[in-house]
């Protein structure tokens, strides 16, 4: 649906670039127009020690982002697909410059060559990667840092006061939902074009294995908490969903080495009474222990790589014959980490809506220029911008979703849940909107869309419906008709 929106916004930006040629706003508009042709930009944000860099590495499948407390973690860093391997520093003042880097024990280490982190606007890592072809991932410094300067970098990047933000969407990591988290998410999507909708934010309950204190059922516990968050009105207003992920386990799973598997297999084969005693705590696992074939340096290295939960889970999988090789153990750990569910969420909520999210970002850029610098043709451009935002069904869907999630539409729980799904709250694909299996055929989709359209048209035309309920139901009807139109079928009852 959103390709048409993107085309409309591109034409509007062409007109704006012509009208503002040679003015201070020209650069912003040119960048916004180019941005429509680029991959979606997804920022990874959260409080200090939330596991942002670790999660980014798990998503990419490589140890690119530094996970220690070094100087590079103080810099907003972009990771994008490249033809070759390159790291470029963009100073706040001056021209971009390439800097040297190396791989240390599989991890990327960048040398800033005398550039002070506080004087760097951003660092761009170009790395040939299939995972980065559809999305640019942006690692941001921690919010809530003891250093006000470091925390301000993230706020200035994602929620600047004098210009539109440079990220199209945000993946926000939290260990528990605190007031700082809520305030940040509110500021990220509290803008003119989005109308306060959560369509550009996903919550991640990070370090999920620690919620269950490293027990084997830790991820199940984390899923119950994430489900509770998904049902809370405050969270529903701020992000589309909340997904639990054990980021460290996911990062290690996609980079697991044969020597690590050999050490784990040796522990799994040892006397169980000895290993169970080792697994009582992280301190005990890393301490000297007579009679254990795997020395304590190797055990501490395993702890650093996967945490106590990862070690316990790995031993259970190997003992249960569910992981007779490093490859199979890695696959099993990926399944248990929650990273696959997060990738699917990113694909359905962000990648499938890339055109719409990028169009939204472009409209924000144009809106900022028109407000700050009214110029020739500005009134006509502003009028067209308002028309696109008001009449484009995808933006109307987003505003209606927000109204449903904030309780401003008086539907019952079941009707609200169905309306959210039909409006794309669980994904943009026809099958996701209709609550059908992903492999449903055209006839099944058509029948379900007809049935939903009839049901919601009755609700929209009900004489006792409030204005808010009738308007929201009408938007749902139009979404159903859009599904029929995409399948080449006529709408029910006409419009």
Quick structural summary:
This protein has 495 residues and is α/β, with parallel strands linked by helices. The protein contains 22 helices and eleven strands.
Provide structural commentary.
The chain has 495 residues and is of the alpha/beta class. Helix content is 53%, strand content 11%. Helix 9 (247-254) crosses helix 13 and helix 10 crosses helix 13. The longest helix is centred in the middle third of the chain and has 24 residues, at 296-319. It is globular and about 80 Å long. The relative contact order is 0.11.
Write the layout of secondary structure elements.
Elements: H1 2-19, H2 26-35, E1 40-46, H3 52-60, E2 77-80, E3 86-91, E4 97-98, E5 101-104, E6 107-110, E7 120-126, E8 135-139, H4 148-158, E9 169-174, H5 179-189, E10 201-205, H6 208-211, H7 218-231, H8 233-238, E11 242-244, H9 247-254, H10 258-269, H11 272-278, H12 282-286, H13 296-319, H14 326-337, H15 339-350, H16 354-372, H17 378-391, H18 393-405, H19 413-422, H20 430-434, H21 442-460, H22 467-486
Parallel strand pairs: 1-8, 1-9, 2-7, 9-10, 10-11
Antiparallel strand pairs: 2-8, 3-4, 3-7, 5-6
Helix pairs in contact: 1-2, 1-16, 1-17, 2-16, 3-9, 9-13, 9-14, 10-13, 16-17, 18-22, 21-22
Give the overall shape. globular
Tally of individual helices: 22
What's the CATH class label of the largest domain? Alpha Beta
Whole-angstrom Rg = 25 Å
Largest sheet: 9 strands, mixed
What's the β-strand tally?
11
> In terms of structural class, how would the helical and strand content be classed?
alpha/beta
The CATH topology of the largest domain corresponds to Rossmann fold
Please identify the oligomeric state: single chain
Strand composition percent? 5-15%
- Given as residue ranges, the uncertain stretches (5+ residues, pLDDT < 50) are 190-196
